Amino acid sequence: INIAGMQRMLSQRIALFSAQEDKRDSEELRQTIDKFESNHEFLTKTEGGEAIYLNEALAALYYQEPVQLDLQSNTFITLSRSQLQQSTPQLVEQIFTASQHLLPKLNEAVS
């Protein structure tokens, strides 16, 4: 799935842009978060309670313990959006840490 692969790259870009002080980067950050979120919404779209784009193994990865990639992705989106409101060194560190935890799970979704 190309979109799942794109999520890996976007998560790392979000971490990078979050650490930047330049105001131009905040617009890049916003656009990157928006793309990550819209991709996530696409991948997790359901119809009649059934996942449209996720096979059974991917649905388990997204919605079941221990990974819960859906929950982790939504938490990452919320954390990243808070960076747009007010940047703190602690928040930048949290986003970086979250992106590093998310990356192997996104890798698993692609393979």
Can you give a write-up of this model?
The chain has 111 residues and is mainly alpha-helical. The chain has one domain (2-110). Helix content is 77%, strand content 4%. The protein has helices at residues 2-18, 23-43, 56-63, 69-85, 89-110, and strands at residues 46-47, 50-51. The protein has a two-stranded antiparallel ribbon. A hairpin with a 2-residue loop joins β1 and β2 (50-51). The longest helix has 22 residues, at 89-110.
Mean pLDDT: 93
Which assembly state applies to the chains in this document? single chain
Would you report the number of β strands? 2
- Succession of helices and strands: HHEEHHH
Q: How many domains, as an integer? A: 1
Kindly report how far apart the N and C termini lie: 9 Å
Relative helix content: over 70%
Radius of gyration: 14 Å
Q: Give me the secondary-structure category.
A: mainly alpha
Please outline the major beta sheet. 2 strands, antiparallel
Strand order of the largest sheet: 1-2
Q: Output the number of helix runs.
A: 5
Overall shape: elongated
Tell me the strand percentage band: under 5%
Low-confidence stretches: none
Feature tags:
111 residues, two-stranded antiparallel sheet, mainly alpha, 5 helices, 4% strand
Quick take:
By secondary structure, the protein is mainly α.
Layout: helices, strands, pairs:
Elements: H1 2-18, H2 23-43, E1 46-47, E2 50-51, H3 56-63, H4 69-85, H5 89-110
Antiparallel strand pairs: 1-2
Helix pairs in contact: 1-2, 1-5, 2-4, 4-5
